[in-house]
Specification:
By secondary structure, the chain is an alpha+beta fold. Helix content is about 35%, strand content about 15%. Strands 1-2-6-3 form a four-stranded antiparallel β-sheet, with helices on both faces. A two-stranded antiparallel sheet has the order 4-5. It is globular and about 55 Å long. The model has no long low-confidence stretch (mean pLDDT about 95).
Length: about 230
């Protein structure tokens, strides 16, 4: 079991770079958990991420140091920051970009009781679609985390569902997300709204509006989306 103040010390270290703890849980004894730092199945996991764009200024300041910007800079920055915290608290740091893929979305749903929106993004009752998970800390010992809270699903109470009618190419529907259609529109459309100021469907969601990413941040993420989804 963790010492009193253990989680607070981790949260304080992450806060220095605008990151936050996003919940966690203790793995069940018979669960197929990934390895901790001793190469044996981890006993507990803490999710690390952001609320709104609280990490942006820290990340952008780091990015400006490079004459030639690294590939996947946000992943690189997240790895650097979270690995330092992991070393200080005797945890193994893992990331959504690691292969083989780890079940980050399942962990996040379990840690905070969230479910996906029609856009595929987990929607939070307070932060809406404006949050992210940047990594996780795996511990060899049981932390003794409380049962994750049950969270309401904002989409259940949304009557207008603007995210389903706002996309210019109807890439968002209850049947799934048309990634190719979205990427094709964003990469060729003349108005550039989605490309320069963010996804119109995502921005139409009324939940968590106070946490909405600034246009600069949304444009950065849209550029990364296009780089990974536009045919050469």
């Amino acid at each position: 079991m963790a010492e009193p103040g253990f989680l607070k010390s981790i949260a304080a270290a992450l806060a220095e770079n605008g990151l936050v703890l996003r919940g966690g849980f203790d793995f069940a004894k018979d669960e197929d958990a990934p390895a901790g730092i001793r190469s044996e199945p981890a006993k507990s996991v803490l999710l690390v991420g952001q609320r709104g764009a609280g990490n942006w200024n820290h990340f952008n300041k780091w990015l400006q140091k490079f004459k030639n910007k690294p590939e996947n800079p946000l992943d690189t920055w997240s790895r650097e920051v979270i690995c330092v915290v992991a070393a200080d608290c005797s945890a193994r740091a893992v990331f959504p970009s690691d292969k083989p893929w780890l079940p980050f979305q399942q962990w996040a749903s379990r840690a905070e009781g969230l479910r996906p929106s029609p856009l595929g993004i987990l929607i939070h009752p307070e932060f809406g679609l404006w949050h992210a998970y940047r990594g996780a800390l795996l511990f060899d010992d049981v932390i003794g985390l409380p049962q994750p809270p049950k969270s309401s699903h904002p989409c259940d109470d949304c009557e207008d569902k603007p995210c389903l009618i706002t996309c210019p190419v109807s890439a968002i529907s209850l049947n799934g997300y048309d990634v190719a259609g979205c990427a094709g529109h964003v990469s060729t459309a003349d108005d550039g709204h989605c490309r320069n100021t963010g996804c119109l469907a995502r921005n139409s969601c009324p939940v968590g509006a106070n946490y909405r990413y600034p246009a600069e941040v949304q444009a950065f993420h849209m550029a990364a989306f296009l780089a990974n989804n536009t045919p050469n």
